[in-house]
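your task:
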Amino acid sequence: MTKKQKKALYRIIAGAILFIAAEILEKTGILTGIWTLFPFLAAFAAVGGDVVTKAFKNVLRGQVFDENFLMSIATIGAFFTGEYGEGVAVMLFYQVGELFQSYAVAKSRRSISDLMNIRPDYANVERDGELVSADPEEVAIGEEILVKAGEKIPLDGVIIEGSSMLDTSALTGEAVPREVESGMEVLSGCVNMNGLLRIRVTKPFGESTVAKILDLVENASSKKSKSENFITKFARYYTPFVVISALLLAVIPPLLTGGNFAEWIHRALIFLVISCPCALVISVPLSFFGGIGGASRDGILVKGSNYLEALAQAEIIVFDKTGTLTKGSFSVVEIQPQGREKEELLELAAFAEAYSNHPISLSLQEAYGREIDRAQVEQAEELSGHGVKAVVRGKTVYAGNEKLMKQQGIAFQIPSEAGTVVHVAVDGSYAGYIRIADEVKPDAKKAIESLKACRVKKTVMLTGDNRDIAESVANKLGVDRVYAELLPGDKVDKVEELFKEVSPKGKLVFAGDGMNDAPVLSRADIGIAMGALGSDAAIEAADVVIMTDEPSKIASAIRISRRTLGIVKQNIVFALGVKAFFLILGAFGLANMWEAVFADVGVSVIAILNAMRALQKKD
């Protein structure tokens, strides 16, 4: 509990004790007449003095119509009509509601505060042979830092010595630690779990991953949703309207009917208490803040409640292929030998390609996974546009594409699935083929299925790859439509065309790896950067940043946004409905001050409890 919350609690306790004492003194007849006013005034001053003070200060600043003003007028007015107990009780319950409200907001903020704790306090830097503790902002590129077990990595860099397990949960929401060793890149904000790491700094603190994420989170609340803007404008006109209505209610009926002024003033005061817009003003922003906080705990960073709200209307989801639905790196996915073992076929191909630095050759060598004795390879020759020829252990090996096989007059097998195919022939006989492809991410199929379960209208894939490969990936994943062989500028054009298929209230979402998709990310209604852990371009260009390589989190983000928006709508309908009902009762003298308190504080508490559901993670 914060100091502010403790002070509020002490005020409530003091006010409650004095209120009970005042009631006892009045009920037992110890104090009568005007003397009963003073203990109730003491109770009122204890519990509501700060509210009246705030209202007075705001009036001097020209900010007349706020909840402090409404509560002050209503409770002070109750005293003037002789309803001392009701005046204190209303203020007491109002303060209880405010304390609860403060606690709820603090809990909602804590999820984002946890993310803010990723900011490192210091860096252990080696300078002149000594280890010194320095501010991360003072560490230069190229300097070496030591990160001990249990410490946060303060800056982005490359491990030059040591191995360890890293806790990346603050950035990604993933509970499984990541294993790192010498030569690997590491990011600021991760926690070193066991070993000692020596890291060479590659970015200044201002450009590090943790700095960019902190900046993103700190500014998230500045981008308001349409719902929040509506409530702000609504409160601006609503509050003066109800104050004027209460004034007219207190004056016009007794003048017209010759009724009791005190009775109608009391009705007007009840009307004021009921009309206080706390439930809307607090619960709507709190719902969005809770949604953003809940998403951040799942490794999904939303740059503002406007983007969270827009995600709920997502109709068409457009994916870049490479690096988003696929891993973005070539690897051996199929070995199909003919007349020999798979291991032998892979070994012959890897040896034949041993002198080449082509990505396909490197993929074969990586799949082989053992050291290649180049002394066993003779007469290695690269055949431009076709493949390679080499003598491996006395056998003439051809490894290459269909053109090479046709050139050598060797009959070959055609794979059933698309991909880059390396055909292998040994001493003029076909030995089989090895298919190399950009592997589909294990999570990609689940991502498409989850989006369809979310009732997304259409999924689309854009890629620069050839049509056969693109269609193969799309069919495997269940993507509705695919556009292949596109240049970067063509992707923007395709997105423009897809906008015509979006309904007036719908949104088009583009998800890319963030490295070369900035133009499309910017053009879409919502740009989502995938696998953005360490990608500066992604954090800058996108509206939503998913810190892991899991495209299924796009569906999670949509579910969070829809749940949040549903909670917002529930609160608006509930608060306005209850208040409208009690305002009518109050105007006709059918609601007392206690019912007015429920219509204000009770509705606020219920709306806040409902808003806090946005923090919960539900898949």
